[in-house]
Amino acid sequence: MRTAQSIFSKHPSQRGFTLVELMVGLVLGLLTVLVISQVLALAEGKKRTITMGSDAQVNGALSLFTLQRDVQMAGYGAAASPDALGCTVTGKYDASGASVVFPLAPVVITNGTSTDTNAPDTITVLQGRTTNFSAPMVLKEDHPQSSNYFEVTSSFGAVVGNMMIAVPKVQGSGLACTLFSVTNNTASPATTLGPTRVPHAATAASKWNQNSIFPTSGYASGSYLLNMGSMVYRTYSISSANSLQMAELSPVNGVVTDPPLELYPQIVNLQAMYGKDTNGDGVVDTYDNVTPTTNAGWLQVLAIRIAVVARSNQYEKENVTASAPQWDVGANATITGTTTCHGASKCISLKVSHVPEWEHYRFKVYDTIVPLRNVLWNS
Hints:
This protein is an alpha+beta fold. Among the domains are: 60-76 and 264-378, no CATH class; 90-113 and 124-229, no CATH class. Helix content is 19%, strand content 28%. The protein contains four helices and 20 strands. It has helices at 4-10, 19-73, 295-299, 373-378; strands at residues 88-92, 99-103, 107-110, 122-127, 137-138, 149-151, 163-167, 177-181, 197-199, 224-229, 232-238, 243-248, 261-265, 267-276, 286-288, 301-311, 326-328, 339-341, 345-349, 363-371. A six-stranded mixed beta sheet has the order 2-1-8-7-10-5, with no helix packed on it. Strand 11 (232-238) and strand 12 form a beta hairpin. The model has no long low-confidence stretch (mean pLDDT 88).
């Protein structure tokens, strides 16, 4: 009879693993798992970076498209008569409400803040929106402050509810522009909208018509009306949550959107400049962010240059951004505050340091130049 010892001695391959072999196998297995885990973690990190970068590109592109679309239409109706640009417009929705005051200009840029000019800018766009033809309506007789209608050479295009701006023949002290809306009350010829009459009687449905905001001396014959239709007056800015936001003055109730409507997230900076033709040859000579204060100054503004900075939402463990993103404005740009970059080109640094731990995020700059076509067509 064979013993257990004799059986194992004849089959040495069935002795099993030693402790050393088990430990070596365990170490090799752990190393394999570690390598695989690192590869998966790296791949997943790259995937998140690419995905978040794609989201940032979409947000940046859509933000720039939204701004470009509105700026392209800026000035429609308002720039129909170039000599009115720069006029201070005053409107009042309700007798007890606050006045709305703004310059008659297609685009107004508010530069940063009083304490930090590198902070995000604010862009305000003014445009008319009407299905009818928008043309200035010339007054053929004087309009006293107390009158409820304008007598014009032709009211072609005027529709009840249209927002209009009255422009004095000669602008000066005490002679500013006034915002009002068109009404129609057939109970009296004086308040009936006709081929040569534009009424603006104050009613419950049209509270914009407050005679108290019209100039004391009224409007002289030869003054004119600008038909803004359902006027658009929008302001774009960057919110505290780093989103592109928009606030709009409602022509229906005179209320400004509050809080502003957030459009696209992860937009951390917005910068804009006026493109100015300083020698009258119809070509932009220089860009700056100095808002004109006179009609002659506004007539120089032919384009708006815009840049937005989009941020990836992916937080990186390592520092991936060492300095502020650069806005390349070209080698021939005549802009103050630029530095040489990308060879012979010129760049402007765009602030992102207000973003917490900004070095751990990636940024992308999107820019464009938008001609003010409504100003160019009417110049």
